[in-house]
Amino acid sequence: MIRRYEFGKVLETEAILEKPEQAEGAVPYLQVDEAKRSLLYEMGEKDRVYGLGENLRGINKRGWIYESRCTDDPEHMEDKRALYGAHNFLVVDGQDQFGVFIDYPGILSFDVGYTRCNQLKIQLSDWNMDLYVITGENVRDIVRQFRRLIGRSYIPPLWAFGYGQSRWGYKSEDDVREVVRRHRELQIPLDSVYLDIDYMERYKDFTVNQETFPDFADFCGEMKRQHIHLVPIIDAGVKQEEGYPVYEEGMEKGYFCKKEDGSPFVAAVWPGKALFPDMLNEEARRWFGNQYQFLLDQGIEGFWNDMNEPAIFYTEDRLRQVMEELESYKGRNLDLDTFFSFTNLVQSLSNNTEDYKEFYHEFHGEKVRHDRVHNLFGFNMTRAAGEAFERLVPEKRILMFSRSSYIGMHRYGGIWQGDNRSWWSHLLLNIKMMPSLNMCGFLYTGADLGGFGADTTEDLLLRWLAFGIFTPLMRNHSAMGTREQEVYRFEKTEGFRHIIGLRYRLIPYLYSEYMKAVLRDEMMFRPLAFDYPSDAYAAQVEDQLLLGEELMLAPVYEQNKEGRYVYLPEEMKMVRFSEDGTVEEKILPAGHHYVKVPLTDVVFFLRPNRLIPFADVAQNVDEIDFEHPGVLAFVREEACYEYYRDNGYEKDYENPAHFHRICLKKGESSPTVF
Ligand code: MIG
């Protein structure tokens, strides 16, 4: 059951397309305090709190305070409160069981037992919101109802389930050719290469550097013949430069965000001084979306939207003030106080909260100060693109994922998990984030495999890939200046080939699970607690995940480990894939096990009476034989799988012809397909 309560003058976020009628009576579970602009819930000692999408810390969010404030912060450390997204949905599971969604575009915080162990306190910046309280049969049911409310998640083209190679630093056609050549030569499967900001002409959106990519359309074609899709980045800021058509047209039509006095708001990002298109204004959004045509026309079929929190390196106004203030430090004896305020001055230039109060949007015909709708910017940039694709190439699925997001954006694209580091702890963070993102509708997601910032190591990359082969977005990405981390930079070529090859064997299963999760508002990745609610130990496990109804994953996420402890909530079949091609299957009883996992092995667990389709290795998605997959099964009596298969490019998602059944009975050697 879904109850909606309206407070104050709601700013329509369009997270929810069809709002239910307002509920009668008092809000259940939560104490509503309008004077303090807060909502309060007294948690039971053992209550667990799930959700909040893209965030730091655990699957159970208890014990910390989180903020919904979309932020470009590459330091994903435990003491942080916010990342790039604002996903205001959580589920309390304990003495009571209910979900809460705060549909509110401004900045808010979720104190989940931080100030007081047993208090959940939600604090808003102003008192205008839609509050949803959802109850249901169990946690999965609550999440399903919420997902139905926010609408169907985005569906990418099939090739986007292949392996993608990315690096901030590929500068030319030849750099890209080299990446493709090395993968193909070593028979390491690959479907896409990402283009970071260097493909553009001086970081101008919707341009291509003519010197390094002299014939871009031609080059796209050349790549496509090798089954490679190029995926260029688009940044939120448009360079301020006379003669650059996107800038000139945007100025002329008044489509950029303005300051209070109506003059354009100038902030610096990659290209130096830049302007932010008013993504919240329908007309400007349409105009910005139309710009993607420039790249679609040249054969591009996928994009990633970056810097759309929006990130600000500095604003003209603040830079001027800081420069002046720095002057005053000249010749002074800098002591404890002055030295730090001196160094902080320069630091304060970037992503300064005060700057987000300096510009305005034209939002549903009203002038609204940015900070009140801050969390909608990335959402609406990606919506601009998504709506444009529907207009410009309605017959096609276009790959789209964004860095910043708000619930509602999940209908237009996926997200990647931003600038992590080549740290083991960030592999674990990647694992933990999957279910909470799924709860909020973000199914097409993954982290930068190998780690974005800092230098990776071969073992970290192997272990990370061994988890990444299960995430819908499987992309190796790293930052300029860090150790190069394409898999061919390392020695264990066979190991890499084996692990990435396994991804391709699993794509029929993964794609099928993806589509069913989308079409049925299910989570593809779940914590053990969601499926084994009466198992008190399972509720504590945060380093294992359920995938679909079939698999349990237990990745290795620590260095120099030859295996790990795994908890089995019931009897399962362990399946081990080794580099030499052997597949070991072994039934293990419920309980605790130490499982050996050598560096290039992949291990997962099949639940009883379940099977998954399992294809042969392919070098790219086009080569996979979806029609005649083999199976991996754990049959006690009979296992059946609902197999979803379409051509991966058309949009008749619900066509019943796409659903097949694969069944295997005990004693049978080959499955029956219906
Ligand atoms: O501030 O375009 O998260 O993936 O490589 C850095 C350069 C800007 C941030 C993205 C990252 C990308 C990088 N961008």
What are its keywords?
674 residues; alpha+beta; nine-stranded parallel sheet; six-stranded antiparallel sheet; globular; binds ligand MIG
Specify the number of helices.
13
The strand order across the widest sheet is 25-24-22-18-14-13-12-27-26
The percentage helix is 10-25%
Small molecules bound in the structure, each named once: ligand MIG
> How many strands?
40
Q: Which residue ranges are poorly predicted, with pLDDT under 50 across at least 5 consecutive positions?
A: none
- Report Rg: 25 Å
Overall pLDDT level: 97
What's the main sheet like?
9 strands, parallel
Content of β-strand: 25-35%
Give the helix/strand class: alpha+beta
User: Alpha-carbon distance between the termini?
Assistant: 36 Å
Query: Which of globular, elongated, flat, extended, rod-shaped describes the shape?
Result: globular
In short:
The protein is α+β, with helices and mostly antiparallel strands and about 675 residues long. Helices cover about 25% and strands about 25% of the residues.
Descriptive account of the structure:
With 674 residues, this protein is α+β, with helices and mostly antiparallel strands. The strands form 10 sheets. The chain has a 9-stranded parallel sheet with strand order 25-24-22-18-14-13-12-27-26. The protein has a 6-stranded antiparallel sheet with strand order 28-29-30-35-32-33. Strands 1-11-8-7-4 form a 5-stranded antiparallel sheet. A hairpin with a 6-residue loop joins β9 (108-112) and β10 (119-124). α5 packs across α9 (377-392). The longest helix is centred in the last third of the chain and has 27 residues, at 493-519. The model has no long low-confidence stretch (mean pLDDT 97). Ligand MIG binds at residues 168, 196-197, 233, 306-307, 403, 418-419, 452, 477.
